[in-house]
Design goal:
- The protein is an alpha/beta fold.
- The chain contains 7 helices and 10 strands.
- It has helices at 49-56, 79-89, 105-115, 120-133, 149-160, 179-196, 207-211, and strands spanning 6-15, 23-33, 38-42, 64-69, 72-73, 90-93, 167-171, 199-203, 215-220, 223-226.
- Helix 3 (105-115) crosses helix 4 (120-133) and helix 3 (105-115) packs parallel to helix 5.
- The radius of gyration is 17 Å and the shape is globular.
- The protein binds adenosine-5'-triphosphate (ATP).
- Adenosine-5'-triphosphate binds next to strand 2 and helix 1.
Length: 228
């Protein structure tokens, strides 16, 4: 059996610990995502989806528990090692794309590669190939403001995949799109999972989209449970 792309074990996380405003969000959350698997994460607002995604993507540290990405246990690693792993192994897509407005679509996909030490020529070639993959070859030199919402989100996909991550984490990636555009963006995402062996963990309120992924899990009182 192949190594899980992501394994979370016993993740605990609270905010404002020891104060009257204390919120305990995760209480021993366990989850595995295999290469080439798309897992939907559904839960009511405030249940801890973003918290879980941030911990899985090494943007935040749990109070207890272990995050293992591609077989490497991350909690005991240095901040520097975690930053490198995050750049190389993890891609993020958010509900709002957060593209850099002053840069073109192409540049938005090149920049994370340069930060990861890729040579400019190779980074440009990969960015063009990714844009072509999502049907935006002709839009490479447009800035985000000159692209539609769905096009911007497709560029954000390319940016998330720029460094060929093992793991894609998405927080409501189609949440601000109309149904047709959402459908197109989701189809591209699933094609990439199927074709590249990418592991995807996708928080969504859209149960139709969730049903088309391989598995749905939900957060129940701070733990991850398989949805029926
Ligand atoms: N920095 C923080 N300080 C205090 N409380 C926080 C902080 N971040 C999140 N929380 C609280 O933790 C809980 C989980 O938040 P989180 O954003 O993970 O939920 P979510 O399931 O992603 O919600 P939504 O679907 O609304 O985005 C919420 O009650 C939230 O108010």
């Amino acid at each position: 059996m192949s190594e899980a792309a992501l394994r979370l074990s016993g993740i605990e996380k609270g905010y404002l610990r020891g104060t009257p405003g204390e919120v305990i969000v995760l209480r021993g959350a366990d989850l595995e995502v295999a290469p080439g698997e798309a897992v939907a994460l559904v839960a009511p607002s405030g249940a801890g989806k973003s918290t879980l995604l941030h911990i899985a993507g090494l943007l935040d540290t749990p109070d207890a528990g272990e995050v293992v990405i591609g077989g490497e246990a991350m909690q005991s690693r240095s901040d520097r090692r975690r930053t490198i792993a995050r750049r190389r192994e993890v891609g993020f897509i958010y509900q709002f794309h957060h593209l850099l407005p002053e840069f073109t679509a192409l540049e938005n996909i090149v920049l994370p590669q340069l930060a990861n030490g890729v040579a400019p020529k190779a980074a440009g070639e990969r960015a063009r190939a990714l844009l072509a993959r999502v049907g935006l070859a002709a839009r490479a030199d447009h800035r985000p403001a000159a692209l539609s919402g769905g096009e911007q989100q497709r560029v954000a996909f390319c940016r998330a995949l720029a460094n060929a991550p093992r793991l894609l984490l998405a927080d409501e990636p189609t949440g601000n799109l109309d149904p047709d555009t959402s459908e197109r963006v989701f189809a591209v995402l699933m094609e990439l999972v199927r074709e590249t062996g990418l592991a995807a963990l996708i928080a969504t309120h859209n149960l139709d989209l969730a049903a088309r992924m391989d598995r749905t899990v939900r957060l129940d009182h701070g733990r991850v449970v398989e949805a029926a």
